[in-house]
Amino acid sequence: MKDKAISLLKRLTEAHSVPGYEAEVRDIFVAELESEGKVSADKMGGVYCERGEGPTVLLAGHMDEVGFRVQHITADGFLKFLPVGGWWTHTLLSQRVEVMTREGGKVLGVIASKPPHFLPESERSKVMALGALFIDIGAQSREEVERIFGIRIGDPIAPAVPFTAMQKEDYYMAKAFDNRVGMACAIQTFQELAGEQAACKLVAAGTVQEEVGLRGAKAAAEKVRPDVAIVLEGPPADDAPGFPKSESQGKLGGGVQIRMQDPTAIMNPALVDLAIEVAEREGIRYQLTMRNSGGTDAGTFNQANEGVPSIVLGTPARYIHSHNAIIDINDYLEMVRLSKALVCALGADAVAGLTDYL
């Protein structure tokens, strides 16, 4: 299970998949699951695999990562860019990126700015405004960028970072753990449940454009019309310096996160209780989480149709929305275990009980 997870996470994190341009992750999803069930797509680019009968249980990860798009090409061959998703400008300078051309080629560049040597002292200690940054791909003119490199306005840009094992056993560093851990979990859970007698119609999904407003989840909710939504995520860890250790709810090595609330969604209480019950019965390590910031596709799913009981399971990752995030793969493996066990617990009676309000 671990070897499969490592291989899958490497392929997924190294894929280029910013909002609106999720093809590389979609291709991995289809290649992994096309022999496991019925594969389909929605008109925004979200992708699905389904099998079984009974209440519809949706296992959803989002395929996109925070990235950029080319906004302007200067006369001397530098690229100005717009963020797609939430970036903290502190993390960007001197980082490598890849621009994907319309022909599918990838052009390596580095995010740069005016050197500090040429800045007045008053500006050196300030965070550079995003508009002051640019990408250097080694071109010398706009014509070279367009004709030789094949780059045009609007082309998507993603961090260029390899999936790397760290010195500490089971720690891995990569870009886009938000949300390739969710995508890997949806794929691996669906595969490992192939021989199980789950009493539901199981739908694994990769949604699009989560990082720009949970947009693809709207199409997914309409297409699948789930009875339950299990959202699989790579949320921010809170165990680094600057956080009170006694208040940590996202510690690496602490197990899968079970999110109870964030500003976009109050999770179905009965579903949360069921997830906790299943985790304790199966000996799965978990961390309960209440968040006062952030959000996930559950923010859309829980309000869809007449309301969909939703929950978020997560693998905490340090430094998400940057070029280098860190996970403990054991937390991911616990997320897969809980996803599998929770799906198996969601038969018709259990699903009906989640919304038995009268």
From TrEMBL:
Keyword Hydrolase (UniProt): yes
Keyword Oxidoreductase in record: no
Alphabetized Pfam families for the sequence: Peptidase_M42
Keywords: Aminopeptidase, Hydrolase, Metal-binding, Protease
Family: Belongs to the peptidase M42 family.
Protein name: M42 family metallopeptidase
Highest classification ranks of the organism: Bacteria, Pseudomonadati, Verrucomicrobiota, Verrucomicrobiia, Verrucomicrobiales
